[in-house]
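Project outcomes to date are best conveyed with an example. Our students and postdoctoral researchers have been running inverse folding experiments weekly, and each run begins with a structure described purely in tokens. The record below, which covers 191 residues, was selected by the lab manager from last quarter's runs and is presented without edits.
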């Protein structure tokens, strides 16, 4: 069986004109696709915020406490998207985002009771649509650390506001418990 020799790829030089009407249809289409791709390739968006000294309420009924209030993020691109006073992140660009929040509740009891801990991600829509809440709970025994993780991928629009909350429910314990918390937001795709 005979095979042909490969033809080396040799791109043509760029057109030496400012008049797009002189471009071939193929070249014009390729340059248009490149321009559209560059428009969608915007600056990266990322946030990492950590709180190793947080407390959340615990009692017989869930009381949701906002996480990361007063915390400066370890990573925020662009830097003006995080409000430390309210612990809210404002989305600067449309796109698909990966969000994760992880919390570890420190042991606080004598090991005789199960309890529940929960995490929530709330998205306040810039369009005025109803808020969207994503929630997860897990249970454990009060003398062991309990880890709770919530990971989602969702589309967000410019101006949407995101915040994180946590709560713990225990039959006998009231007051607060110590937690370590980490939240990350990353834009993974253009709109």
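After processing, the design step wrote out the following sequence:
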């Amino acid at each position: 069986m005979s095979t042909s020799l490969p033809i080396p790829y040799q791109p043509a030089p760029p057109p030496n004109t400012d008049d797009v009407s002189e471009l071939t249809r193929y070249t014009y289409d390729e340059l248009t696709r490149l321009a559209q791709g560059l428009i969608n390739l915007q600056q990266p968006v990322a946030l990492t915020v950590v709180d190793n000294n947080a407390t959340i309420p615990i009692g017989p009924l869930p009381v949701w406490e906002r996480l990361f209030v007063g915390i400066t993020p370890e990573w925020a691109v662009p830097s003006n998207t995080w409000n430390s006073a309210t612990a809210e992140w404002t989305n600067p660009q449309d796109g698909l985002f990966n969000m994760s929040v992880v919390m570890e509740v420190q042991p606080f009891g004598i090991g005789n009771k199960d309890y529940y801990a929960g995490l929530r991600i709330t998205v306040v829509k810039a369009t005025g649509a109803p808020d969207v809440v994503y929630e997860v709970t897990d249970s454990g025994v009060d003398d062991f650390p309990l880890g709770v993780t919530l990971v989602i991928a969702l589309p967000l629009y410019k101006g949407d506001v995101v915040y994180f909350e946590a709560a713990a429910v225990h039959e006998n314990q009231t007051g607060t418990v110590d937690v370590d918390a980490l939240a990350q937001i990353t834009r993974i795709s253009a709109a």
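DSSP finds one helix and eleven strands in the chain. The radius of gyration is 25 Å. The training component of this project remains on track.
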